Amino acid sequence: MKALIVNCGSSSVKYTLFEMESEKKAAWGLIERVGLPEAFYKRRDINSEEKQEAVKVANHTEAVELIIRELLDKNRGIISDVSEIFVVGHRIVHGGDKFSKSVLVTDKVKEGLKECFSIAPLHTPAHYAGIVAVEKMLPGIPSVLVFDTAFHQTMPDYAYMYALPYEFYEKDRIRRYGFHGTSHNYVSQRAATLLCKPLSELKLITAHLGNGSSITAIENGKVIDTSMGFTPLQGVVMGTRCGDIDPAITTYLIEQYPQYKDAKTLNDLMNNKSGLAGVSGLSADMRDILKAVSEGDKKAELAFNMLVYSIKKYISAYYGVLNGADALIFTAGIGENSALVREAVCKNLSSLGIEINVEKNKERSSEERVISTDNSRVKVLVIPTNEELMIARESRKVIENDN
Ligand code: ADP
Questions:
Q1: pLDDT value of residue 88
Q2: With a 6 A CB cut-off, is 337 part of the ligand 1 pocket?
Q3: Which helix (H) or strand (E) holds 29?
Q4: What is the pLDDT of residues 48-99, one digit of tens each?
């Protein structure tokens, strides 16, 4: 019984095939630079080494078709019969406030997804193309949509509303949505297992720190606030995103610089040229920043300090709104791998009951682990995220509930 997980990004298609009895990966890979001349296809399965080749794929439809053809290929593929796949799970970046949970794909659902095109124009059309391509290549096999925004739909209105005139919410659905929901959901469930307590009795702060980062406050398994907003631009300082800034800076830029009158250029500045990359002038990658800091680069040090400080502020605010916390969880590229970031974030938070064990924090491991001191009131955990597995589990749940 296999589940195929498809993740159509703005210019890539990633996939993972799970053997659902064991929840182990059977095959995985990606096609990057979809639509560009230098597109390439990287793939692996449990029987063979990683292969990489240049491919010609004009769009997401062709990329998904190629991936499925290869998985089913008599000589190179890992699936001998289509019927081995019982579900296809699609990662969907934005479900607006239309989708508050994972859903089985129907014509009506596809129409609903089309209505989300304007809210995530880079991603949703790519997701849609992927869904249609899967339907064509795997007729009769159910598809499920799992939304990055869905987990956050439990936020109360006073947390998700912006204090703009109400009509912009009514007309344009401008509100906080939050992202990385699948990851926050996964690590919160794992935290409950590790802490041997039901989610319904826990107050958690989850810190997904990757290229894009978000912090979430979770009470009794429900999100009550999250740092990303209407788009992933809001919140903490990220690799290339500025995170929270005074919104009037944008109107200032528009007034002062002719190029920023163009919304695309302004968006590009804040999403792709800011954050660690913009402040340091060096790199968006935390490893490069840490190296530069160790060599005495002052701008890299400032960028690092700004990122850490912005994370600390959200953790402290969420501790406040949760009125305490049982655990703080670090996940994603930086959260899982950077002991330095974790240590800096947790430094001087002992008044909140957050005390890290410096030695435990430094131990390198890819396992789930506790890094707080025995006396720390708030347990500090590192939990590697697994969004693909979460999508596979969600997809199975939807299929089982549907039958
Ligand atoms: P994405 O948001 O693209 O999924 P990831 O979750 O893979 O990103 O996180 C990427 C970030 O993780 C990069 O900034 C990278 O430098 C950082 N990272 C990965 N490994 C380490 C490490 N050992 N030490 C510090 N940072 C790391």
A1: 98
A2: yes
A3: strand 24-32
A4: 899 999 999 999 999 999 999 999 999 889 999 999 999 999 999 999 888 9
Residues 6+ apart with CB under 8 A from 208: 180, 183, 184, 187, 214, 215, 216, 331, 332, 335, 385
Q: Is the dihedral of CA 308, 312, 318, 319 positive or negative?
A: positive
pLDDT at 292: 98
- How far does the centroid of ligand 1 lie from the alpha carbon of residue 256, in Å? 35
Residues 354 and 226 both lie in one domain: yes
- Residue having the nearest C-alpha atom to atom 3 of ligand 1: 211
Atom of ligand 1 nearest to the CA of 213: 2
Residues in the chain predicted with pLDDT less than 70, given as ranges, are 403
Residue located nearest, by CA, to atom 22 of ligand 1:
337
Among the options 97, 107, 148, 402, which is catalytic?
148
State the pLDDT at residue 116: 85
**Residue 119: what pLDDT?**
81
How much distance in Å is there from the Cα of 287 to the middle of ligand 1? 7
Domain extent for 319: 196-387
The pLDDT tens digits for 267-326 are 999 999 999 999 999 999 999 999 999 999 999 999 999 999 999 999 999 999 999 999
Token readout for 295 is 């060599």
pLDDT value of residue 121: 80
DSSP reduced 3-state for 318: helix
Q: 359: how many CB neighbours lie within 10 A of its CB?
A: 8
Q: Is 97 noted as a catalytic residue in this protein?
A: no
* Shortest-distance atom of ligand 1 to CA 289: 16
End residue of a domain, out of 82, 113, 147:
147
Looking at the structure, tell me whether residues 140 and 202 fall in a common domain. Answer: no
Is the CB of residue 280 less than 8 Å from the CB of residue 211? no
Q: How many domains does the chain have?
A: 2
Kindly state whether residues 247 and 138 are assigned to the same domain.
Answer: no
CATH number of the domain enclosing 217: 3.30.420.40
DSSP reduced 3-state for 223 = strand
Are residues 354 and 246 part of one domain?
A: yes
Alpha-carbon distance values, 40 to 9, 26, 31, 60, 163 (Å)? 15, 21, 6, 13, 45
